Amino acid sequence: MAVHNAAGREIVYKVAYHGPGMCGKTTNLRFIYNTLPGRQVGNFLVLDTAVERTLFYDFLPVVIPLEDGYKVRFHLYTVPGQAYYDASRKLVLKGVDGVVFVADSRSDRMQENEDSLGMLKRDLGEVGLDYAKVPLIMQYNKRDLPDPIPMETLDEKLNDRRVRSLGAVARDGVGVFETFSAVADLVTGRS
Amino acid sequence: MSTKFIELKDADVELLEAELRTLCARAGAEAVVLADLSGVILASHRVSEKIDGLLFAALLSSNFAATEELSKRLGVTSFRIMYHEGKRQNLYFDKVADDTILVVLFRDSNALGRVRLFTEKSIVELSKMVSAASRPAEEAPVLPQAQAAAAYLAQVAASIQPGKL
To answer: Domains of chain A by range and CATH?
Structure first.
């Protein structure tokens, strides 16, 4: 849930990056962490397994200090992509203000994308949120790999709400900040 | 939209902090944190600079949410309280409202019963305060500061050109 602490001159939003395993959710956050100046990012918390798969979630607090002394914080979380981490996903989605759905553009990953989107819809419902109303951005990642699924096909199969969709190569930072900016616009009501 | 929006004005924060201060003194606690289940600290008392408050709240809230999920799967009504016993310091969690938890950090020289008693008393007051500050997300006002931050991020996105597709 969004929190406006007028006394502490602080506004906080929670954004979750959702998508199938190995689609690049953590890579998005890592690029943001490595790019923004140190005063704008807090500690990057990664709770992963020995093989570097997200077990619980990743958490990256980003703070934008404004001239009038206000601080606007975006708490960025990733959910574990693997289907069997259902409970972990739900706890990350609890109270979320906006969602980035990261889809994998590789040609053999469409089923995983569709399954993950199905899980997002179901899990949002279970934490009292409506998929049809949650601020949502679609990111189609790994556009640099050979023979990616066309953006139009991904839109057709996944983007049933016809929300804004962006291509990305998160590993190189392409599309990462455009996506972050797009979801920030939605949660703050700027667009 | 998310389910709720919390707006804390100066007077709200003063009341919350006064209640946490009182709890800290009565319970003999080292620190207390009031956080929502999405990992945002609403108020705290004596959280030292050594603790990264943001990470602390994120971990605490997910810990609590994980336990709630466990209770659902076991068919138990709710695990409202959680207790972590350390070698020298302990953590006591209690639910304030549906989306809010209170965490008390205390030393092992202090009695759990004392912490529990005064925490329960404080929760009655804190619950009223949090409810008064909460409203449906649909009623959240447009905040120009938030939009300014979003505009800043748009500028960052435009200035960072790692490559085009």
So the answer is: 3-188 (3.40.50.300)
| B160:A70 CB<8 A | no
Residue type, A160: D
Bridge partner residues of B156 (DSSP): none
Where b means 16+ CB within 10 Å and e means fewer, A96-105 reads bbbbbbbbbb
SS3 assignment, position B110: coil
∠B15-B16-B21 over CA atoms, to 5°? 95
Q: Which residue has the tokens 């019963």?
A: B113
Single-letter residue type at B74: L
Strands B100-107 and B89-97: antiparallel
Q: pLDDT tens-digit profile of A22-59?
A: 999 999 999 999 999 988 888 788 776 555 555 567 89
Per the DSSP assignment, residues forming a β-bridge with A15 are A76, A98
Pairing of strands B4-8, B89-97: unpaired
In a 3-state reduction of DSSP, which class is residue B148?
helix
3-state DSSP call for residue A141? Answer: strand
A-facing residues of B in 3-62 (CB < 8 A) are: 3-10, 12-14, 36-40, 42, 52, 54-55, 58-59, 62
How many structural domains does chain B have? 1
- Any domain includes B162: no
Whether residue B158 is contained in a domain is answered as no
B5: Cβ contacts below 8 Å, ≥ 6 apart: A1, A2, A3, A4, B134, B135, B136, B137, B139, B140
pLDDT in tens, B115-138: 999 999 999 999 999 999 998 888
Is A34 in the B-facing interface, judged by CB distances under 8 Å?
A: no
ipTM, interface predicted TM-score of the complex = 0.91
Contact A105, A154 (CB under 8 A): yes
Which structural domain range is residue B39 located in?
A: 4-140
CATH of the domain at B45: 3.30.450.30
Q: Is residue B163 part of a domain?
A: no
Residues 77-116 of A with CB under 8 A from B: 87-88, 90-92, 94-97
State the pTM of this model.
0.89
Taking the C-alpha atoms of residue B130 and residue B20, their distance in angstroms, rounded to an integer, is 13
Backbone φ and ψ of A53, nearest 5°: -100, 140
Question: Does residue B34 form part of some domain?
Answer: yes
